[in-house]
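hi!! sorry for the late reply, been swamped w classes. u asked for the two structures so here they r. pasted raw, havent cleaned anything up. first the sequence of the first protein and right below it the C-alpha cells
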Amino acid sequence: MSRRIIGLLLVAGLFAVPVHAQEEDLSSRRDYTDNAQRDRPIACKAGDIEDFAGKSMGDVFGTDWPLQPEASTPAARTEVKMLERGKIRWPQGLDPQQAFTVVAVLVGADGAPVRAEVLCKTRVGFDKAARGYLMSSKYQPATIDGKPVASVAVQVISIRSIERDASPRKPRGT
C-alpha cells in the first residue's frame, strides 16, 4: 500500500473516535457533583427502555436536588460513595435472565438517600427492587471543597449478578 492510502486510513480511523465517545457519554458515567451535568439529557444505551426519555437529571429530581456551589477546582469535588450495600428483594415470578437496570439515587448532604429513580433498563419487572436496594444502602455524601452536598449517584445493577444474593436461605439450625 502506498503511504498516501495508509495515511488516509489512519485519518479515517480518527473520525471513528466521536462514535466511541458518544457511547462513553452515558448517564451512568457522569459526575453529578458538576452542575453542568444537571441539565444534560439522560443518556441510555441504544435499545434500553427509558423511563425519562428527553429529560435531564435536574428534571427528574427537581427541587429535591438543590443547586450545588461551584468547586474551586475540578479536583475539589468528590462523588457520592456507597459504603454499605442494602438488601435486595428478588421480585416474585421474575426469572433470572441477564438484564440491567440503571438507577439514579439522590443522596442528601447527610449521606441519607432521599429518592431513587430508574432511568434505563433492558427489561421490566425489577424497578421496585432496584429502587429499594439503593434506598436501603448507606452512603458517604458528595463533597465540594470539603463540604458535604446533596448529589446524585447512578448505579448499574446487573440482575444476573445479584441472583445468588437474593435466593432464599435456610434458617440456622435446620
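now the second protein. again sequence first, C-alpha cells right under
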Amino acid sequence: MADEKTIEDFTKQLDSFKKGFEAITSNLESQLNEVRTQVEKLAKNTSFMPKIMKSNKEIKKEGKKIEMIVDSLISRLDSICEDKGIM
C-alpha cells in the first residue's frame, strides 16, 4: 500500500490538474463567447446584403432597358435626320 506522502503528492497533483483544466475550460468558454458575439454582430451587419444584391440586379436590369430605349430613340432620330437631310 502507498504511504501517506505519496497519496498527499498525488492528491496535490490532481488538484493542480483540476485547477489547470478549469482555467483552460474557462478561457475556451470566454473565447467562444467572444466568437459568438462577433458572429452575431456580423450576422446583423450583413443581413441587408441580399437585399442590396437583389436591388443591384434590378438596377442593372432597368439600366439595360433604359439603354435599349435610348439606343432606339437615337436610331430613330438618326433616321429622321437622314430623311430630312439634316445629317
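hope this helps!! also noticed smth abt the second:
The chain has two domains: 1-47, 49-87.
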